[in-house]
Specification:
single chain; mainly alpha; 0% strand; globular
Length: 50
């Protein structure tokens, strides 16, 4: 899944997701939940990957 697809479905901006993935910004819990739902990964698993 591309960043563009994730951001469109999660309702966030692509630069925001990029900064979060690179560790330059912290995501709000609401954003983490949205991204988890879009990519089909449980929130706890997503947190372990970081």
């Amino acid at each position: 899944m591309t960043q563009e697809a994730v951001t469109l479905q999660a309702g966030i901006e692509r630069p925001t997701l990029n900064r979060i993935e690179q560790g330059h910004a912290a995501a709000r819990i609401h954003t983490e939940i949205q991204v988890s739902e879009v990519i089909g990964v449980e929130l706890a698993e997503q947190m372990r990957r970081r």
